[in-house]
Amino acid sequence: MQRKIFALCVALSMICFIPKGHAQKGKSEIALGYGYYSIYSLYNGAPYSTSGGVPTITYRYYLTRDVTLGLGVGVENIGDWGSFITIAPELTATYLDTRDADVRIRLYGALAYGVAIFNDYQLQQGVADGSGAKAYGFQATPFGIRVGRQFAGFLEIGVGYKGLVNGGLAVRFPRSLHKRHVAE
Q1: Residue 132 resides in a domain
Q2: Side-chain-side CA neighbours of residue 111 (13 Å)
Q3: How far is Cα 135 from Cα 153, in angstroms, rounded to an integer?
Q4: Does residue 180 lie within any of the structural domains?
């Protein structure tokens, strides 16, 4: 398991060595979201379905205008059962972008797979401790919508550690200034 985590860390560090010429001027994005009905709470059902939701933070690096590579982190606390911290590399592909319109709307899909670190709350006599890193931290998002340019709101529908519904705010940097022609 330690080898898999090491390989994951090496793969993520490779993001730093991606040539800037292939990117959309080296743009990055930070997204803060909140999701409901994660795969963990759905799988376990009652009485363990007392999750308050999943706060997430995602970093994305634009490889091209339509493809990003990033890393997502989500934290979920499920009542009496346990808590999960999921760390998953993510690949996003845009399938519709209105970049020339006044209001920019992007439709995209995403896949993420990584590790979930579980903290078992059910530590009783005769019950095995299930805590530790698990290789089932994933998110499949067939539909995502992002509205805005530098600052944007987003909503994602999918299944995995972020939940069935995940929404929030994103900021892209560095800021790009569009050249505007001034009539003389």
Answers
A1: yes
A2: 2
A3: 30
A4: no
Task: Give the chain's domain count.
Answer: 1
Structural domain contains residue 181: no
**CATH number, residue 115:** 2.40.160.20
Rounded (5°) CA angle 99-88-24: 25
Q: How much is the pTM?
A: 0.75
CA distance linking residue 84 with residue 35, whole number of Å: 14
Q: Residue 112 is inside which H or E element, if any?
A: strand 105-120
148 to each of 31, 99, 179, how far by Cα in Å? Answer: 13, 10, 18
Q: How would you label 53-84 residue by residue, b for 16+ Cβ within 10 Å and e otherwise?
A: bbebebbbbbbeebbbbbbbbbebebeebbbb
> Does 59 map to a domain?
yes
Spacing of C-alpha 170 from chain mean position: 11
d(CA 31, CA 55): 11
User: pLDDT digit of tens for each residue in the chain (184 aa)?
Assistant: 555 555 555 555 555 444 444 435 568 999 999 998 888 777 766 554 577 889 999 999 999 989 999 999 999 888 777 788 999 999 999 999 998 888 999 999 999 999 998 887 766 665 566 677 777 789 999 999 999 988 999 999 999 999 999 999 999 987 655 544 445 4
